[in-house]
Specification:
The chain is of the alpha/beta class. The chain has two domains: 48 residues, Signal recognition particle alu RNA binding heterodimer, srp9/1; 59 residues, 2,3-Dihydroxybiphenyl 1,2-Dioxygenase, domain 1 (Roll). The chain contains two helices and eight strands. It has a four-stranded mixed sheet, covered by helices on one side. It has a four-stranded mixed sheet with strand order 5-8-7-6, covered by helices on one side. A hairpin with a 5-residue loop joins strand 7 and strand 8. It is globular and about 45 Å long.
Length: 129
């Protein structure tokens, strides 16, 4: 098996998808223009990263109230500090900057909807990055 996606029930999947396209470089791989406005977003390799939708059958979690160690998703970058500055200008907020002993840098942000987004600048990236 291969990882396909994880999903988030969010208040405005269209706006959230657009923010991730414009600011994180994701692509919309599939979308629905009617409720629940499902959008599947992928990275530049075309891998499915996450699905966002608005479905009243389930509650929308208070993402901003959840500690990022409870839930977050992460993206790889070669310059986490530059990406942090750029994303903050686009509405993200800083939660924590965490330099690691091996030379890696992890920066935890919250997107404009409060969802924890981690920038990973790893001294030794995972294979394929």
């Amino acid at each position: 098996m291969k990882f396909e996606h994880f999903a988030l029930n969010v208040p405005d999947p269209r706006a959230m998808s657009q923010w991730y396209v414009e600011n994180v470089g994701f692509k919309i791989l599939r979308q629905m223009e009617v409720a629940p406005f499902t959008h599947f977003l992928g990275d530049d390799a075309g891998r499915v990263v996450f699905e966002v939708y608005n479905n009243p059958k389930g509650p929308i979690p208070d993402y901003a109230a959840s500690h990022p160690l409870t839930f977050h998703f992460a993206v790889y970058t070669t310059d986490a500090r530059a990406e942090r500055a750029r994303l903050e200008k686009a509405g993200a907020t800083l939660f924590l900057e965490d330099p690691l002993p091996d030379g890696s840098l992890l920066i935890m942000l919250r997107d404009p909807w409060g969802v924890p987004l981690q920038l990973c600048q790893r001294a030794k990236p995972f294979p394929g990055y």
